[in-house]
Amino acid sequence: MSRIGKKPVELPSGVSASVSGQTVEVKGPKGTRTFTATDDVTIAVEENAVSVTPRGTSKRARQQWGMSRTMVQNLVKGVTEGFKRELEIQGVGYRAAMQGNVLKLNLGYSHEVNFEVPQGITVTAPKPTEIVVEGIDQQQVGQVAANIREWRGPEPYKGKGIRYKGEFIFRKEGKKK
């Protein structure tokens, strides 16, 4: 049995949820988000909470139960607080700067990398070696951060590249004579 799915998702003040069929729509101060659940679960709004219950005892219904509840929880968190991913850049001459809707990255290539920021995502560069990605969609925030990191992932010998803040890079020893 799902322990996560049993707990209803509390709706903070200023957030409203509506269910039509299998689609949940959550409105909050930062925007509106929707999620369509599978037919294995039933979603209901009661007073200030959204509850998810399985339809049957099949393995798939139990799997969808916890996952659907977490998805609804992420919708509520997204429209109230939003999601944030922080990246840090290490390496001599490596830096980032925002210019309008384009993130300009100097990553040791012969050219400057121009990363177009997608709609609904906010990217800031508070320092030349820091990048902050924010938005209301957790999946999109993580994907944009991964796409930025992909340009120059951290290498194991000197640790140069773009990494998530707090990420540990396993360092390797260089050649021995």
UniProtKB/TrEMBL annotation:
Residues 1-31 are annotated as: Disordered. GO terms for cellular component: ribosome. Gene3D superfamilies: Ribosomal protein L6, alpha-beta domain (3.90.930.12). The keyword Cell division does not apply. Keywords: Ribonucleoprotein, Ribosomal protein, RNA-binding, rRNA-binding. Part of the 50S ribosomal subunit. This protein binds to the 23S rRNA, and is important in its secondary structure. It is located near the subunit interface in the base of the L7/L12 stalk, and near the tRNA binding site of the peptidyltransferase center. Belongs to the universal ribosomal protein uL6 family. This is Large ribosomal subunit protein uL6. It comes from Rhodovulum visakhapatnamense.
